[in-house]
Amino acid sequence: MAWLAHDLGNARAGLAFATDAYTHAQQAGHGELCGWAMDAAASINLYEHRPDRARQAAERGLTRAPDSHPLAVRLHAQAARAAASEGDRDTFTQAFHQAEEAYRLLPTRPARRFGMDTLPLADYALTSYPASAHIWLGNPEQARQSAESALAAYETAPAASRSPSRQAIARIDLAHAHALLGSPDDALALGHQALDSTRVVDSVRNRARDLATFLARHYPRLDGARALTERATTPTARLTRGAP
Q: At the top level of its lineage, which domain of life is listed (predicted)?
């Protein structure tokens, strides 16, 4: 419910559901569910431009989530990209190293969630999260490399573990990296490809708007930038076309 509410553009409801899930999970002694709840809260706060609250949610989740679960990787990576959003390079580096260390300690066969392999979620966190982080920190080449790795991870993941919305965000990160590297036409094309996703949820539009704003500001003569802005601000119309 937390993810659904946020996908539909209601961050306040999403955070309420995440907090409620955490409370019930804590009362039941279910550390893993506590971690899932705070993972959702961290993402929602980050996309709502509240990096301090995103980092607090990630740290709260880490106090309950099992160390041997892919959630530990995700939560450390959540804390890392929240720090990057604030421009805190040192904390980003430290938290991301903790994510990498947590990944190395994962068992060969991590726990499954509703029958789904959870390891790809850790793989995504180690590729797509640093892509966004490096954009915010002004490291375009590192962002490009991470975004390309994220797209490769999505394409090779089991079908049940793929997420069109995460793939779209990775494509937007790659677009932003190209814009920072001086290739606005490539950035514009990638931005439109991201918005062609079967799941253009609120987080995708959020990042697409950031890309469109950057292109309009730094490349005011770029043909097609206005069209990207209009697409990014269009209410969700394609959400029901893809698998959740």
A: Bacteria
Non-local (6+) Cβ contacts of 192 within 8 A are 224, 227, 228, 231
What pTM does this model have? 0.88
Query: For residue 207, what are the domain limits?
Result: 138-244
* Tens-place pLDDT, residues 70-97: 999 999 999 999 999 999 999 999 999 9
Distance CA 70, CA 161 (A): 14
Geometric angle at alpha carbon 165, from 160 and 170, rounded to 5°: 105
